[in-house]
Amino acid sequence: MKKKVKNSILYVVVPCYNEEEVLYVTTEKLTEKLQNMIEDKLIDKKSKIMYVNDGSKDKTWDIISELNEKNSFVTGVNLSRNRGHQNALLAGLMTAKEYADIVISMDADLQDDINVMDKMVEEYNNDCDIVYGVRSARKTDTWFKRTTAEGFYKFMKLLGVDIVYNHADYRLMSKRALNELENYKEVNLFLRGIIPLIGFKSSTVEYERNERFAGESKYPLKKMLNFALEGILSFSVKPIRLITSLGLLVTALSFIFLICYVIGYFLGSNVEGWTTIVVLICFFGGFQIFCIGIIGEYIGKIYNETKSRPRYIIEEVKLNEDK
Ligand code: UDP
Ligand code: MG
User: To test the ligand 1 pocket, which listed residue (57, 63, 85) has its Cβ within 8 A of the most ligand atoms?
Assistant: First the structure.
């Protein structure tokens, strides 16, 4: 049994990519929140905010450095270049776990309601090692984002991947869970899929997601599609199996066509078959290319995994004197 830790040191890990517009406000709100939680004796006074600068092109790192000088709650990790949200988050989690008992990850734009952090810590005190923040409504999302996101969760479930419905990367993890996460070495990182695999007692906390208060989304459609594909291909071989079955089905269909043509030949009704042939050639050609493509996607993943390159490189870490 895990020992109940009261007054744990909490690190809030926030990946940042070109977030100069939001950093001051985010810091102000998070500092106030941490102060309140310290006063309520929920967390230790050594608790911190840890920003991870994911190779931003704007003044993000300068602002983090400046805040680190002025505000004793602010610490920062600077990555050597942009590695994407998931890798930046992992870099932050792995750095923070050296100093913290519990880590909460969230986005820089405060779309996730910071007021449920108390509840998350309470759940941790009830012996949970992982607490998932789950969105209760998607009112602030566009119709397109809502439908595609919810469709994605349902599709993943259908493929047999155990992900928490409507949970993004707003979650609390204990040091113990983070130490286990370190053992998952995959380069194709999809944390939402990996973390439920860790196990331990977990629970969920509901919240309403707000709109980004400043700046633009750093997740344009292209990145979102890549992310979804990452999730599907890294966690399920069902698409390959589906293709095998589809291949068999199409072969069976072509046999049926063949029989029809043979019958037609004897009945003497086979005259202009040109269209049919072209349609069939196109159909099979396209289908085969599609299959090769999917298999190629998996081979690509294997290729990346076998290289096992580092998932991030930290250039600098700024802590705060009392740690
Ligand atoms: N982010 C990052 N690296 C990237 C893209 C995004 O660290 O390459 C961070 C970003 O700064 C933010 C979080 O990931 O803190 C989520 O991004 P965003 O809020 O733009 O995504 P959305 O909420 O629109 O899905
Ligand atoms: Mg956002």
Answer: 85
The amino acid that residue 87 corresponds to is N
> Rounded to an integer, what distance in angstroms lies between the CA atom of residue 283 and that of residue 86?
38
The pLDDT assigned to 182 comes to 94
Concatenated DSSP letters for 226-289?
Answer: HHHHHHHHHH--HHHHHHHHHHHHHHHHHHHHHHHHHHHHHHT--S--HHHHHHHHHHHHHHHH
Distance CA 270, CA 272 (A): 6
DSSP state of 317: E
CATH of domain 10-216+311-318: 3.90.550.10
Say if residue 282's pLDDT is above 90.
no
User: CA-CA distance, 127 to 185, in Å (whole number)?
Assistant: 26
Query: What's the whole-model pTM score?
Result: 0.78
Length of the chain: 323
Q: How far is the CA of 6 from the centre of ligand 1 (A)?
A: 32
pLDDT band of 2, cuts 50, 70, 90: very low
Question: Which residue minimizes the CA distance to atom 8 of ligand 1?
Answer: 84
For the segment 221-231, what is each residue's pLDDT rounded down to a tens digit?
788 788 888 88
- 3-state SS, one letter per residue, for 129-188: CEEEEEECCCCCCCHHHHHHHHHHHHHHHHCCCCCCCCEEEEEEEEHHHHHHHCCCCCCC
- Look at residue 323 in the predicted model and tell me its pLDDT: 47
Distance CA 236, CA 229 (A): 11
